[in-house]
Amino acid sequence: PPGTTAAQQQDIVAAVAHLSRLAPEFAADEEIATRLAQYEMAFRMQTSVPALLDFRDETQATLDLYGARPGDGSFASNCLLARRLAERGVRFIQLYHRDWDHHNDLKKFVTICAAACDRASAALVLDLKQRGMLDSTLVIWGGEFGRTPMNEERDGSKFLGRDHHPLCFTIWMAGGGVKAGHVHGETDEFGYSIVRGKMSVHDLQATILHQLGLDAHQLSYRYQGLDQRLIGPA
């Protein structure tokens, strides 16, 4: 903010670290060490943001590939920002498109949102591949739920929509060593239930961890009487 410099921020981080290490009994405290590491990471993030958000070093061809205009806050610009974050070593990046919850006027709204997402999502995968980053980057695209195959009518509206549907929906993954072109699972002819290759959330998480070189069953810790794991209690 105005009136605050990077040097002042760095002084605060350094002062907190110094004070926390004065008492010998604090020196081996893991929680304090973790908090200091968070302060230091936050400072590095603050100082790196201006260059990260400056798209002037991107070619016009790259901007056109994504359909992005610098500073517009669009999903396309965020996809391009995700690639820039990955280039800088950020290990986990999550993007949102905030307006897929359509319960009415589907043809209009799905057309708008698909146009906003499809081109930019494909561009991100292609851009990573062109830069030699896709093999070491796992891209996961999906939603929090699917949509019912039947119409939903609310309050007599003539604009028919579809309701939330948790029983089956589609995600896709690219890069990170996944098998290109492979399709897993199948629904019935209505898209209402899974008839083949059901994938649970736990199995999906275990698959993702496997692609990252981690064994989901080995990553556990004892907490409140349970062996906690990244894919749920044992």
Q: Structural class of the helices, strands and pairings?
A: alpha+beta
Overall 3D shape: globular
- Sequence stretches where pLDDT stays below 50 over 5 or more residues: none
> What is the CA-based Rg, rounded?
23 Å
Count every helix, treating DSSP H or I runs of 4 or more residues as helices.
6
Beta fraction: 5-15%
Strand order of the largest sheet: 1-4
Overall helicity: 40-55%
Note the main sheet.
Answer: 2 strands, antiparallel
Q: What is the arithmetic mean of pLDDT?
A: 87
Order of helices and strands: HHHHHEEEEEEHEE
- Distance separating the two termini: 46 Å
DSSP summary, beta strand count: 8
Account of the protein in words:
The protein has six helices and eight strands. The radius of gyration is 23 Å and the shape is globular. The chain is 40% helix and 11% strand. The strands form four sheets. It has a two-stranded antiparallel ribbon. Strands 2-3 form a two-stranded antiparallel sheet.
Keywords for this structure?
234 residues, alpha+beta, two-stranded antiparallel ribbon
Chart the SSEs and their pairings.
Elements: H1 6-20, H2 30-52, H3 60-66, H4 75-87, H5 106-130, E1 138-141, E2 146-147, E3 164-165, E4 172-175, E5 186-187, E6 194-196, H6 201-211, E7 220-223, E8 226-229
Antiparallel strand pairs: 1-4, 2-3, 5-6, 7-8
